[in-house]
Amino acid sequence: MSRSPATRPSTTGLLLDLVRTAGTVSRVELVEAAGLTAGTITNVVRDLIDGGLVHEVGRARTTRGTPRRLIQINPEAGFAVGAQLDRCTTTVVLVDFAGRTQATAGLRGAGQRSPQDTLTTLAEHIDDLLSSAGIVRDRVLGVGLVTHGPQDRARGVLLTDQPSPLWREYPLASALSSALDLPVLLENDATAAAIGEQWAGDVPTATFGVIYMGSGIGGGVVVDGDVYRGRASNTIEIGHITLDQGGAPCVCGNRGCVEVTAGPAAVVAQAMRDRNLAERWSLSGSLDETLVDFERLARASARGDQDAHALLESSAQYLALAAVTLVNLFDLDTIVLAGPAFSTAGPQYRDHVARALSEHALSRELSPAKSLLSANVATAAAVGGALSVLRSSSPGERSRSAAPPPRSLSI
Ligand SMILES: [Zn+2]
């Protein structure tokens, strides 16, 4: 059986997300935040309470008038899985209905394996994660499968030959859905990272950009609290801005892109040209090991190795150019760096981006845009994938009911 969650949240889903984001909230505050009438909010909240999705947790202290009753999400009402799949690494997270991460697992990426083999292994790890967390399948709303683009999100397929031609048009979402008997939603990794960053609440603004660096480089933008999806969620492909049209060929069909100039594979390839450096840092040079090699190089730089530092400096300077472009395009005041490639090298890139934004972004006279490093570089995208599932479905919309069974909700 193949199923996919709705790609747009329902009104009930939006209201649930308001409660989820607020933590604890009153009906009056929901009226203001949702822009709905008090009567509608009262009815929907009653349904949510009856369905076991939210519960009352007492009353707010007030100096006058009737104290407002407060509600919270019931974290046990359902769960979602986020799986960030990269050529080199895969990260799986389990979040509860309140959006809190309950369990995390890491495994190898797709490498040279076929999509069938990769998804079989991924499904086994998701099963193991659910088992070890004590969560039965019927309580899981779905899986957010987070990976690179370009992709056709509605059909759940990739529109690229990466990491091999077998992946183009392979029915990723439906195949994983069949393997797990759960709904699966395909999501762009950088977009998911933007959702994860917004959810983490560490970004002090509702409009910001994310530069995501795993094996490749991508971008995401949140505008007034909503992730920008463009026509089909293939947005902010900041890794494929051409820096040098006579540069190295890129997987996208163009030349001299940010990704082939500054990405982890480019940095490792440059190091591999010097046998002494490759041996000093124990680099394999395999494209399937790019992030492992890049991390070794980054750790050498952090230990004070000047050669490693110089290689990362060059990459960071190019990435900073991409950040300036992103800020200029969207008039952003904050750029967040996320993705596994920033695990150790993050501070060096963050500082370069900050300097470039203060010196080159057109809005610098107003105030220099900020450069932040995600507090969850390795998991932000997987968490964002799980949140996409939570936001696009509710337990009442499942084909199979959970225990306790919440009833179908509508307003
Ligand atoms: Zn490209």
Bound molecules: zinc ion
Mean pLDDT: 91
Number of strand segments? 15
Helix content: 25-40%
H and E string:
HEHHEEEEEHEEEHEHEEEHHHHHEHEH
- Total helices: the number is 13
What is the terminal separation in angstroms? Answer: 29 Å
- How much of the sequence lies in strands comes to 15-25%
Which runs of at least 5 residues are low in confidence (pLDDT < 50)?
A: 398-411
Radius of gyration: 22 Å
Major sheet details: 5 strands, mixed
Q: How do the strands line up in the largest sheet?
A: 6-5-4-7-10
Question: What can you tell me about this protein's structure?
Answer:
- With about 400 residues, this protein is of the alpha/beta class.
- Helix content is about 40%, strand content about 20%.
- It is built from 13 helices and 15 strands.
- Strands 6-5-4-7-10 form a five-stranded mixed beta sheet. A five-stranded mixed beta sheet has the order 13-12-11-14-15, sandwiched between helices.
- Helix 8 (about 265-270) crosses helix 10.
- The longest helix is centred in the C-terminal third of the chain and has 25 residues, at about 305-330.
- It is globular.
- The relative contact order is 0.15.
- The chain binds zinc ion.
- Zinc ion binds near residues 252 and 254.
